[in-house]
Amino acid sequence: MSDATDAPPADDANAPPAINDPEPAETMDELTARHRREIKSLEGEKRAALKNAKSKGKKAKAAIKEAEFKYECMERDLKERHRQEVEALNGGSAGVEADGASPEQVGEDVVDAEAAFKSVSFDASAAQQQTQLEQQQTEQQLAEAKRLKALEKKLKKKNAQKQKELDREKRIEQENSTAEVHADGNCLYRAVAAQAVRLGVRSDIADGDGGYKKMRELCATILMEGREEYEPFAELDHDPHHPASTYEEYVDHVRSTSTWGGQLELRALSHGLQCPIVVFSAEGPPLTMGEEYNSGDDNGDGGGWEKRKAVLVSFHRYYYALGEHYNSVVPLEARS
C-alpha cells in the first residue's frame, strides 16, 4: 500500500487561474515603423487642416496661423512621446538591440520626422503667402476698377458738357454765325477786336490781326484807371494764368504778354468800348457785361441788349483741346 503523500496532488477547483505571459514587447524595428505611421498620420492631418484653413476667405490668414500653432504643439508632444518610448525600449542602455536597431538609427528616424514636419510648415507658410498675394491682387483689381470707373464718370461728364456745348452752339447758329479766332492766349482780345470792327466803335482798329494788341492796351488802361473797382477781383498769386504778386504786375501782364483774359478783362473792355459785351456759353444763358451801356432794346434772349450795338463772343470750356477759348459771334442779319 502506497503512501498518500506519494500520489500526485488532485486538481483544486478553488485554485487561482494561471497567469498568462505578457504580450511580447515591440522590437525596435516595430517601434520605429509605428512612429513613422504616427508621424505620417499627423502630417496628413496637418495638410488637411491647412487646406481647410486656406478656404476660409478673409479669415484664411488667422485660420492658417491657428492650425500651425495647434499642430506645432501636437508635433512637439508626439516627438516627446516617441523619445520616451525609445528610451523605455532601450532600458536606458546605449547598446545595439537584438533586432539590429541602434540609438543612432533611432536618432536618424527622429531627424527624418522633423524634416517631414518642416516640410509641412514650409507648405503652410507658402499657402499663407499665396493667400496674402491673392488678397493683394484682389485689392489691386478693386482699386483699378474704382479708378477706371471714376475715369469713365469723368469722361462721361466731360462728353456731356461737350455735347451740351455743341447743342447750345447749334442754337446760337440758328440766329448767329460763329467766327473762329486763333486759339492762343490772345483769343479773347482777338474776338473783341473783331466785334469792335463790326460795330465800328473803334475807327483806329483795322480788320486785321493786330487789333488784339490795341484791345490789350485799352484793357490795361481801364484796369489802372478804375483800380479801386477792379483790383479786388484780380486774382494775384493764385491764378496760374497771371503769375503776378501785385496789381501793377497783373496789369502789365494784360498789356504786354499773351496772358489769357476772363470776366474781369471783359468788364474793363466793355467800359473802354462803352458798349455791352454778351458772352454765350454752354453753361447757361448769355452773360452780359456792361449792361449800363444797353440801348434798352430786348430781343428776347434775356440779356436786354441789341445785337447790332453789343459785342458778341462765345466762350468754350471743353470744345477745344487747349482748354478755354473765345470766338467772335456775328448775327446773321449783320451779314445780309
UniProtKB/TrEMBL annotation:
Report the transmembrane regions from the record.
Answer: none
List, alphabetically, the SUPFAM superfamilies matched.
Cysteine proteinases
Q: Which Gene3D superfamilies match?
A: 3.90.70.80
The alphabetical list of record keywords is: Coiled coil
Coiled coil location: 126-175
Sequence ranges of Low complexity compositional bias:
1-22
Q: From start to end residue, where is composition biased (Basic and acidic residues)?
A: 39-48
Keyword Protein biosynthesis found: no
Q: Where is this region: Disordered?
A: 1-61, 82-106
What PANTHER family would the database entry show? Answer: DEUBIQUITINASE OTUD6B, OTU DOMAIN CONTAINING PROTEIN
Protein's recorded name = OTU domain-containing protein
The record lists the organism as Cyclotella cryptica
Taxonomy, top ranks, is: Eukaryota, Sar, Stramenopiles, Ochrophyta, Bacillariophyta
